[in-house]
Amino acid sequence: MRERxxxxxxxxxxxxxxxxxxxxxxxxxxxxxxxxxxxxxDFLVHIQTALDPTQTGYxxxxxxxxxxxxxxxxxDSMVLxxxxxxxxxxxxxxxxxxxxxxxxxxxxxxxxxxxxxxxPVYLPFLNDYRTLGVQAFGVWHNPTLIGIKxxxxxxxxxxxxxxxxxxxxxHWRDWLAFMVLLALATxxxxxxxxxxxxxxxxxxxxxxxxxxxxxxxxxxxxxCSVFPALAVVxxxxxxxxxxxxxQHEESGLAFSxxxxxxxxTQHPIASILQSxxxxxxxxxxxxxxxxxxxxxxxGWGMTGFAYLQHIFLVETxxxxxDGNWTWGTSVSLFLLFLASAVRLWQQTGRWKExxxxxxGLICLCWLLLAWQSACGLEYMLLFIKNGTFYL
Length: 391
Known about the structure:
By secondary structure, this protein is mostly helical. The chain has one domain (12-386). It has helices at 2-36, 43-51, 61-72, 75-101, 105-117, 143-165, 172-188, 191-210, 216-224, 227-241, 268-275, 277-285, 294-312, 326-349, 356-386, and strands spanning 252-255, 313-316.
């Protein structure tokens, strides 16, 4: 019996490693394409900005690129670094599923891959592009998004742990790790903080009122963990929007209804449904317990604030056409996708207890998960075939 068990474990790990190896090969090619062609993605531009002393960059990845260039003098080291971030994000997603859903080795690896690499449902008669004009999170042309997806998994996991421990008291190690990782993720790209912080604040206020305004000090202590990340945002704002022509003197933020949502899309409402198909189906499946489920509440809270920013805010000046407010929806939908996969796995484990209607809904959820994952894989293959992210 033990030998059979060991053999099964080895086979599962072999399957996961094979999946990672194939993915690494695909991603290496995608990143090399971007190194060779500045119009194939943002990667080469990010590197050139980091290495040019006359340019001012805001991302915490810039000193990493500078250090790798100083050590190796080769772009390949930077490709390897971003590739490891990608594989780390897939592994972190699998770890999250194993921790919260109890998935096995191969299921964790496969579902982690699906969550990290999935893309919106592609329906060309609604919107022409696979990842442009929709709120895609399985994109490979921007390393900063890859970085905050990786860090976002651990930020969410630490937040959930602190919420679970809140009545007994916050553990300072968890609090410190959360503060550092959130600040680091913000340094890479502030999009995660812009969605995470307001959702966290609303849920803290809800808990505080529901708890009859007790444990005020603990709420203040938990809220203080966001301050370093806010300081990082302030420094990034000064770099991007203040200080003269080199820092985009005329750039700024403004209200503009639908400016981001309407970019490169024919049917904006359909683009939201294409992007959120799986998570919407899981929300229906878990509707009865949604408000009591902190994992899903946080995911939907983040996504709600991300869409408010995406719909109502726009950058002005040279960055106006970049659609940077889309990145908040990308990272939020990814974390919500991950949380929804956890709940779907748990609901599937109670299959015998489900009504025929709920069984049909569970099957629909798995179908949508598979569809969005297949769209993500197809996007990777087409990126390699066509040499661009304009797909």
